[in-house]
Amino acid sequence: MTNRLSIVLLLACAPAACTKPNPALCCTDAANCASLGISTDHMCTDGLVCIANSCVAETCSSNTDCNAQLPFCASTGLCEAACETNAECPGFGGSDDAICSNGSCVQCVMNSDCAAPTPVCDANVCVQCATNADCSAAAPICAANNMCANCGSDGDCASNVCGANGSCVDPADIVYLDPGGTDGGSCTSAAPCRTIAYAATQTNQTRQFLSLTMGTYNESSFNITSTTTAATSIEIHGHGAGLVSTADGPAYDIAIGVTIRDLSMSGGGHVLSLDGTSETYDLQNVTISNGGGGLITNGTVTAKNLTIFDVAPAIFVQSGSFSGDRIVAHDVSLGIELGGVDQASVQITNALVYNVTQGPGFDVENATGTVASSTVANTGDPGNPGGLAFNCKTPLTVRSSILWTPGFATSRPVVSGCNVATSIAGPTTLTGVTNADPMFVNAAMGDFHIQAGSPAIDQVNTGPADDFEGDARPQGMRYDIGADEFKP
């Protein structure tokens, strides 16, 4: 006859708090009882045996006759520590594990043991994915939680293009380029073309992506318009490639909507012109250099991680809107011009503008908006009356920024016509703004990080999520003034 015993285990207590032994304990003989500090009255009777100091059935007919230490009722009629067949699973206490593998009950041993939405067996557990190969192009990355996730970069995709929606773009929708390619055919991955001028003619409403193999492309110029392509917008994925132009006039002119990622562009009378007044443009991780001018914009432009040098001006926002974050412009004869053709609307954060040899860092002809958490330094020849940090003909707002031109005579203003608040400006005194030295690490060498003890540290209550090089803000109790957030 099989006996069962339900035992409630009491919590162990500290010796000083116990007044009697735990009554749920059992012992096997007098010596074992003595070692546990309990009497021989705790030895099991009535067909029960003491296993791991708990009374269990001497024989079993099912797993419920066993305990957690010996959870499986084997074919011998005895409780065992290891399972022998799937029929013994899940074991005493129950679970979802129904397959016996190497003496333990597990959820799976092969993919066929699993089903959607977790069709992959990984370490005896059914999951959505174990490697990227288990995921689809719509969510191609197997994340640390074994769930398929969106791609985060082009390198996550076999096609080498990650779309804005986080899915890998089908190779059939991509025009491929290589510096050693040939302009002909349809520019496939196996037979890429060489120039963007030709590649643009192979785009259409469904084939809107250009993918460049890393390298240098000597392409004098291109002009992409609605007559060049049937696509209303295109995406250029540069993968760190460089375009080098020898054109006397504008090098790269785009009149339809475009996204440009991870690309360097240089040369030409003006390096890059975004001309569509009603178009949308997005620049990500783009470098522009060594041209008669840098970037000319119209339409609606968003730029993040944009670096410009050796041009004049760095940026000319002719009309439309310009939203920029992490904009670095240096060693230019003219800085950033806002407005001119029509009124422009601007929102700029984390701009670092320095070593502007002639004109002001920002020349605001006709613009509304805000420049915040930015640093403008070493602008203009001290003898050049136009060489201010900010010259505003319309009252742009400048907030939480450092405007520092130590080469100016102390009688010269550093700002003209702008609304400046919670900023550091000088060395010339500006009404309502501190002119304390911001304590750059080495302005002469182009290092405009701030040092410990800078009056810019922990001065404002709000700011962007990171600084001009991606360091998180704030690092202290409050946000720092300027493009750099000091890291202790």
Structure, explained:
- This protein has two domains: 1-58, no CATH class; 167-450, Pectate Lyase C-like, CATH 2.160.20.10.
- The protein contains two helices and 36 strands.
- The protein has helices at residues 30-36, 196-199, and strands at residues 48-51, 54-57, 72-73, 79-80, 99-101, 104-106, 120-122, 125-127, 141-142, 148-149, 174-177, 209-212, 216-218, 222-224, 233-244, 250-254, 257-266, 270-274, 280-289, 295-297, 300-309, 315-317, 320-332, 336-338, 344-356, 362-364, 367-372, 375-379, 390-392, 397-399, 402-404, 415-416, 419-421, 424-426, 440-442, 447-450.
- The strands form eight sheets. It has a 15-stranded parallel sheet that branches. A nine-stranded parallel sheet has the order 14-16-18-20-22-24-26-29-32, with no helix packed on it. The chain has a two-stranded antiparallel sheet with strand order 1-2.
- The radius of gyration is 35 Å and the shape is elongated.
**What is the number of helical segments per DSSP (H or I, 4+ residues)?**
2
The rounded Rg comes to: 35 Å
Silhouette:
elongated
Enumerate the spans where pLDDT stays under 50 for 5 or more consecutive residues: 1-20
Query: How many β strands by DSSP?
Result: 36
CATH structural architecture of the largest domain: 3 Solenoid
The proportion of residues in beta strands is: 25-35%
The CATH homologous superfamily of the largest domain: Single-stranded right-handed beta-helix, Pectin lyase-like
Largest sheet: 15 strands, parallel
In whole angstroms, the N-to-C terminal distance is 74 Å
Secondary-structure content class: mainly beta
State the helicity in percent bands: under 10%
- The domain tally reads 2
Average pLDDT level: 89
The CATH class of the largest domain: Mainly Beta
CATH topology of the largest domain: Pectate Lyase C-like
